[in-house]
Amino acid sequence: MKVGFIGLGNMGGGMASNILKAGHEVTVYNRTSAKAEALAAQGAKVALRIAGACGGDVVVTMLANDAAVEEVAYGDGGVLASLARGATHVSSSTISVALSRRLAADHKAAGQRYVAAPVFGRPEMAAAGKLFVIAAGQPEAIETAGPVFEAVGQRTFVVSENSEAANLVKLSGNFLIASVIESLGEALALVGKGGVDQRLYLDMLTSTLFSAPIYKTYGTLIVEKKFEPAGFAASLGQKDIRLALAAAEALRVPMPVASLLRDRFLTLLAHGGDKLDWSAIGNLAAADAGEGKG
Amino acid sequence: MKVGFIGLGNMGGGMASNILKAGHEVTVYNRTSAKAEALAAQGAKVALRIAGACGGDVVVTMLANDAAVEEVAYGDGGVLASLARGATHVSSSTISVALSRRLAADHKAAGQRYVAAPVFGRPEMAAAGKLFVIAAGQPEAIETAGPVFEAVGQRTFVVSENSEAANLVKLSGNFLIASVIESLGEALALVGKGGVDQRLYLDMLTSTLFSAPIYKTYGTLIVEKKFEPAGFAASLGQKDIRLALAAAEALRVPMPVASLLRDRFLTLLAHGGDKLDWSAIGNLAAADAGEGKG
Amino acid sequence: MKVGFIGLGNMGGGMASNILKAGHEVTVYNRTSAKAEALAAQGAKVALRIAGACGGDVVVTMLANDAAVEEVAYGDGGVLASLARGATHVSSSTISVALSRRLAADHKAAGQRYVAAPVFGRPEMAAAGKLFVIAAGQPEAIETAGPVFEAVGQRTFVVSENSEAANLVKLSGNFLIASVIESLGEALALVGKGGVDQRLYLDMLTSTLFSAPIYKTYGTLIVEKKFEPAGFAASLGQKDIRLALAAAEALRVPMPVASLLRDRFLTLLAHGGDKLDWSAIGNLAAADAGEGKG
Amino acid sequence: MKVGFIGLGNMGGGMASNILKAGHEVTVYNRTSAKAEALAAQGAKVALRIAGACGGDVVVTMLANDAAVEEVAYGDGGVLASLARGATHVSSSTISVALSRRLAADHKAAGQRYVAAPVFGRPEMAAAGKLFVIAAGQPEAIETAGPVFEAVGQRTFVVSENSEAANLVKLSGNFLIASVIESLGEALALVGKGGVDQRLYLDMLTSTLFSAPIYKTYGTLIVEKKFEPAGFAASLGQKDIRLALAAAEALRVPMPVASLLRDRFLTLLAHGGDKLDWSAIGNLAAADAGEGKG
């Protein structure tokens, strides 16, 4: 299959590489071309303009935020203007529900197909082709994109025929992860100030009721206060909570834990934490409890 | 070993039974004697007064709350008055940090030993001898109680020589579980109102990042609105959040998620939910979002 | 002075009327012309297009939200296209800080002047010319607009030369009012469920420490559950809290009470409360406490 | 009238002085006798034991917290043991609803009368006889205590025949004041970080919609960061929010703003703020926004 891939950041680089390895013909485009070279070395063609990556059956976009996706999709010579009728745009970026809805409508109007397919997993999972893909869209379009999903992920969940549902699910998932970070941060602050060894405590939690890997991953980062380098930056975490709250507002769903997370992220950013790992919000409960920054 | 066991409720009954099965000589006491009969049928001796269960090396108490433990420990003919010097009181009830501290001091003054050993696990795990035991106290006392822990649990975590630390850890654990219920409730309300199938969503979560059994257990209860009969009653959940907040106040640790949970439980109880499973707070986000109780 | 006035709603109608009464030559424009007739009867000229209201020294806009202001300002034949160089746009609508900043820049680029001048006061205060005007902008522009402010208000507060500051102040003021509503709602729910007569309680509060009129106004609405007709609709209250939170996010200021208010408004709207007075959020604490809506 | 007065702190000293000035025969008792001397110089008799202050028609207690009142009321030779049948105990301390209920029952059983009569006002208002008295109890007892209320206050509000209602009202009032402090703190943090002069802003607020003196009083303390010496210590504010939450829990009334205040006070105390004025919580929003403590 001929696949275009736009956006070769921490996540996109690994994804494009795995699509290549799966035997597809891949044309990559990145705003700064340096990152495209590594893919070229693996056999990818390098497009110098967005349109150059839109000539196949499928083009995947994996970009940082709404603004980047808007520019790539709607700009002069962008995806909407370049993609053939009947071809499919797979949007894997974590974007707002509102933008995903708009893309769905505009691709439809242009006779093109659109699948929202955000992913769960950190960069090392992207590199290993072990992401979880959350896909939504018309069945034929999802079927077309199937080989791409198989290449980048260990499992695909088709959650709806309504593409924006995938973005909603992705945002809700990041909300759940952030809520684990916050709750763990509060519990660790409590037992730590109470004299319990935090590593022992975390080992107990993750050996018993809280065996999901995220508890171990994020609990360890909080206990060790190891927030650099960021696996997922606080500024991105803040963005995702904002998008979750925006979706919740549109649906009129009050989410008090999400509201609390919003304030935690703003506190972190107000203190210069943009580039820390988002798990750094898990340190704020201890800071409020006077335990310092350690 | 000669073991006394006081408190044969949903949890205590299973625990006493497993201590019997492990070959110990067990004398049980329960305020209402009917529950003692089942244990007698399994070979336990039945004491008619508290003192009758305090004649061995170890007496275990597994009671509903601080008031019950205070009565059993400090009442006329209670554990403190009846236990031999050098014998050990193992307190497995989920009680306040303050009462645990007081028990430690008073047992010490009486020449007795005290181990706080609350447990994690629902009644079916108690029946199966698969609880997780969180123990704290002087090493010799914990060693003495070791065979009891082996009989009732699948694993024991010794968290401190300071007995009250075990109660703090237990309360923090229940806080973490309740925070999972609340966060799941918010996420389910969001995606549900957004048109995503909640069962499919929950399956996705528990197959990927949220693989710990509590997500499946509680998520299913919330999705199916199956809050009766209660595995763990909302009134007990409310009590535990209150105790966690009391411990946090004494240590001066602000815990905003715990504060939110406090308000959720009060809302539930104000609407007559005392006897519902505590996971019913996971339905309140949807109720606030206008999704009804149905 | 020749003054244009665009937006003759509950607030704008009274304001325009008072500018007329002060002796200025007023040309009004309203999207639906019916509302302009009442002003015509008072001596106003009626413009059929926006441009027709932009021919004087000053044009005042008083519209419902960002979208309405954007359309009037940036649309074909809008204020920006129609206002003479050196003339002044006085924006009294409660709009976002971001839009106010954008208007300031674009008017400057067009050689026009811009003053942000949102007002405090309910419709009866607008009718009586008793509003409080919060003005910000370049001193000369504020001086030009001075006679307009005198006509509509009892007092003008010039808060900054930076026009967007006035919008920030206005939004923060509405946040403070909403926080009074919420706090009163919680206190009334508490003492009411405790058996205290709520009217007596409110009389005590407003006779002692809480003598500001808003406590009496909103407390009475809450106690009497008199939320219709709305003096200020919940949907507008929700919008203003959203704008306050957006401004706070841009400035990285966590505001937990504002976050709580956000969730309260969403709960109200999710239950169909869009057209209720915004003080209806003051009934939610009692509802959570099981006191019904009755 | 013969009046006993127990508790000559910042508030009690002024109150006792005003009862003397009104012409009553006053016998004072204070745990540390130094404070009694000033009253003796004004004509008061000084009792060396609690019983010595309980020989008249009325005894007023004005103490710091539940523990102090419990000791004075229930200790050997305490108020309950010393007061004549038919005599009246006026409890003006800010205590828990639960303790007030217990005192009512025990005084009744002893054939004595009990009036709960907490007061609003800072020490300077106590010295000036300008307090607001919130009274509850049986009408005859309140009538008996009337001359005392007239001596210490500018106005008395009888809120219920059920004495504990007065304590509930007092706690709810302190909750409302604290919520004003928090809301002002958030608003000031927002506009301050947005470049608005905070003094100008506060002047605008208090000249318009927020004319109640508490806005000026507390707003000025926050803007000037003048938290020492404390008019009302943060440790006492924390206690009152705790008592309000305890009363709300007993009545099953969720109060999210009170929960937030709880966390704010714990944060303040965790950073050593016990002796600061309670308005120091109004500085925490700015601190979270990175505006420092300076």
Specify the CATH homologous superfamily of the largest domain in chain A.
Answer: NAD(P)-binding Rossmann-like Domain
What is the CATH T-level topology of the largest domain in chain A? Rossmann fold
Mean pLDDT of chain A, as a whole number? 96
Approximate helicity band of chain A: 40-55%
Indicate the radius of gyration of chain A in whole angstroms.
Answer: 20 Å
**Main beta-sheet strand count, sense and barrel state of chain A:** 6 strands, parallel
- Based on secondary structure, the structural category of chain A is alpha/beta
Sheet with most strands: strand arrangement of chain A: 3-2-1-4-5-6
Explain how this protein is built.
Four copies of one chain form a homotetramer. The first copy, chain A, is of the alpha/beta class and 294 residues long. The first copy, chain A, folds into two domains: 2-162, NAD(P)-binding Rossmann-like Domain (Rossmann fold, 3-Layer(aba) Sandwich); 168-288, N-(1-d-carboxylethyl)-l-norvaline Dehydrogenase, domain 2 (Orthogonal Bundle). Chain A has 13 helices and nine strands. Chain A has helices spanning 10-21, 34-41, 66-74, 79-82, 97-109, 123-127, 139-152, 164-193, 198-207, 213-224, 234-251, 256-270, 284-288, and strands at residues 2-6, 25-29, 45-46, 58-61, 88-91, 113-116, 119-120, 131-136, 153-160. In chain A, the strands form two sheets. Chain A has a six-stranded parallel β-sheet with strand order 3-2-1-4-5-6, sandwiched between helices. In chain A, strand 2, helix 2 (34-41) and strand 3 form a beta-alpha-beta unit. In chain A, helix 5 (97-109) runs antiparallel to helix 8 (164-193), helix 8 (164-193) crosses helix 11 and helix 11 runs antiparallel to helix 12. The first copy, chain A, is elongated and about 65 Å long. The model of chain A has no long low-confidence stretch (mean pLDDT 96). Chains in contact: A-B, A-C, A-D, B-C, B-D, C-D. Chains B and D meet through helix 11 and helix 12 of B and helix 11 and helix 12 of D.
